[in-house]
Amino acid sequence: MPAFDPVRDAVLNSPQERSPTLHRRATHLSVLLNADDNALAALDPIRRDDAPRPSIHIDHISPPTPYSPVHRISKPSSVLVPLSHAEIERFRAYRGEGVARLTGKRKRAPSDEPELVEKRPDKRHAGDVGVVVQHCKCPFHALCDNSRPDVGVVQRLESPIIGLKNFNNWVKSVLITRFGHPAFQQSQLSGTLSGPGRPRMGRGKVLDMGCGKGGDMTKWSKAHVKELIGADIAAVSIDQARGRWNSLNQPRFDATFAAMDCYTQPLSKGFPPARLAQPFDVVSMQFCMHYAFETHQKARCMLENVTKYLRPGGVFIGTIPNADLLLEHLDNIPPDAEELSFGNSVYRITFENHERPLFGHKYWFFLQDAVENVPEYVVQWETFERMAADHGLDLLYKKEFHQVFEEHQDNPEFKSLLVRMKVVDEDGASAMDEDQWEAANIYIAFAFAKRQQ
Q: Per the record, which residues fall in region Disordered (predicted)?
């Protein structure tokens, strides 16, 4: 018997001519679909219309066998109907009954027993901190409502401003790599990292002031730091940051977290002396330092916390709104405008008045899918740099976000990072639209080094 050849077998068992004596094996498709082979052979091939169609002539294959099932159940128009755009959008945002039960508010049945009221501390936050404490940096370091649960990665990727969030993360990665990594290499703190797999060395200690929910934790892990101290004013965010650290599955750094106000309290109020004995190599404040400029006292307390435990040669990195850009927009608002506001579909900034104090220059900030009109304060750069110098900090770097992009987009390391972090695709197309790009460029990135004594 000749060797099995599926192609030859298919050709030999395909119809060569329209004849009632045509042989078909029992598994032939036409035999399975039709009860009467003779009737099948006598029918003409099915055509969608009467228009002539080009045909491909192959010598050894005859025209196709007509398809005419006897016991058809569904109508031809009832299958393979494409979804409309409205249906696609509806199913994309569809939330099933299970999701509704998990995310919906639970209502308790009325009870005759008196409700226990938790006693709240008498201490109140000064100024606008009570509003700010209800917000915290989300995993992509844009402010978000603290009452919202920490959603998973898939839900975060569905954010309408995911391109903006990814770009902000990329800028922070540039800061950490360019200024943090060299500081870690010069650190005197080193040791073996604990965890599964082959042990590896960790070096350096970082203070993340305003760490939020721990969105930069992966960056510190990739930098192979030895120890992290995280502080934030929102206790809920600290709990989530601690949970995120516990969920890391690679050899991880040591970490300690505390819920405290770093603008009114010294670090020693939140951390034991043993945790502060070894100085920091890097202090990071991302998208939160401007809250300290509500008053001169808060700004000074913040800088004391930055510099007191930062070693000589250590670096202070961060991101803040660009005061020059904000005030330029304020100047361009017509005098007869109903409100001192500017922005676009992604963000909006509304000033309180035309006064320009060095501290406490308030405005309200709105960011789509992140912030609902949070009070913030202008950080006048000259004032900030002068105060930093008084605390022993020398400026290393100050760039607007678009300048950071222009400076590093062609660097092989940061160029590939743009793609991996989905800021751009493989062809270089941006994930941000023009409104998101405008929102990103209201910020600047900076780096200072603590003066050698």
A: 1-21
